[in-house]
Write a structure and sequence with these properties.
binds ligand C2E, 8-stranded mixed barrel, alpha/beta, 279 residues, binds magnesium ion, 9 strands
């Protein structure tokens, strides 16, 4: 009896595996078509100064208009694209969309607007990436430093020497590097000191813990950023209390549903104009 129970568990496991693999294969196939058919749209979420508040930039966040499944959020396909290697092509496509949108805004007499784009740390394993970014700045005649990048630390640390070369290669364009989800990865401080990055994004999980109680981790991150002369963005601010505490602790920049969710481009632009012309 034990044997047959074991066997049925194996069968169950195999079925679950098979359907997971099938799902991945479907997505892989659909991603290929999706890029060709222009099914991806960028949404934009404001990054703002905690003091004013004024919008200083937008984070671009991809959405997929899937022909059968509707609007698909990135968590459902970015990890799969990472596994299949399609992330390289997808990210380059997204970078192009972001550059195109940014150029359009800059022509509409909003020269100071900035956009950050999330990219896989895989790009930081090949010097070609420098040319991709340089070409985008040339092709769309982007203002210096207006297109910036968000990366997580894990992939960078594996290949520190090369990653450093690549970051230094794009720094003359004014590209700033935002270290995303800071505090959730390796956070090896020795590496942090060596990486030529400009901004730390404190992960939402730390912001969630902001109550009136002691907040040693956020305090430590803020003081670390200060001594390394890095700017800080707090991610996922949802309450006025979190905002007030972050501001009091000296965090300069924030992002979160309290101010705005990610929005389609037109709405994002109206939001910026309305917010930044307020006295
Ligand atoms: P991320 O870069 O850390 O982006 C922050 C995520 O938190 C976004 O989810 C954003 O919508 C969400 N968020 C922002 N403020 C709040 C808040 O106050 N409350 C809550 N509950 N959530 C908030 P999203 O758009 O689903 O993106 C998820 C992740 O997918 C991103 O995390 C990023 O790692 C990845 N991703 C998104 N777009 C791209 C892309 O174009 N390329 C690549 N390679 N990855 C992307
Ligand atoms: Mg990000
Ligand atoms: Mg993040
Ligand atoms: Mg994230």
């Amino acid at each position: 009896e034990a044997k047959s129970a074991g066997r049925s568990q194996i069968r169950y496991f195999n079925n679950a595996m098979r359907s997971k693999l099938k799902h991945q294969a479907d997505i892989e196939n659909d991603l290929q078509h999706g890029i060709k058919n222009q099914e991806f749209e960028l949404f934009f979420q404001p990054i703002f100064t905690l003091n004013a508040p004024k919008v200083v930039s937008f984070e671009s966040l991809v959405r997929w208009h899937h022909p059968r499944n509707g609007l698909v959020p990135p968590d459902q396909f970015i990890p799969i694209a990472e596994n299949t290697g399609q992330i390289i092509e997808l990210d380059l496509h997204i970078l192009e969309l972001a550059a195109k949108q940014l150029a359009q805004w800059q022509k509409q007499s909003l020269p100071s607007v900035k956009v950050t784009v999330n990219v896989s740390s895989r790009h930081f394993a090949s010097l070609e990436f420098i040319d991709h970014i340089r070409t985008l700045y040339d092709k769309y005649d982007l203002n210096k430093g207006s297109l910036c990048l968000e990366i997580t630390e894990s992939g960078l640390i594996e290949n520190l020497g090369l990653a450093t070369k690549i970051i230094e290669g794009i720094t003359p364009l004014g590209v700033q590097l935002y270290l995303d989800d800071f505090g959730t990865g390796y956070s090896a401080l020795g590496y942090l000191h060596q990486l030529p990055i400009h901004v730390l994004k404190i992960d939402k999980s730390f912001v969630d813990q902001l109550t009136t109680k002691e907040t040693p981790l956020i305090d430590a991150i803020l003081s670390l950023a200060k001594s390394l002369q890095l700017e800080v963005v707090a991610e996922g601010i949802e309450t006025p209390k979190q905002w007030a505490l972050l501001k009091r602790k000296g965090c300069q920049l924030g992002q979160g549903y309290l101010v705005s969710k990610p929005m389609p481009s037109q709405q994002a632009m109206s939001f910026l104009v309305a917010q930044n012309t307020k006295p």
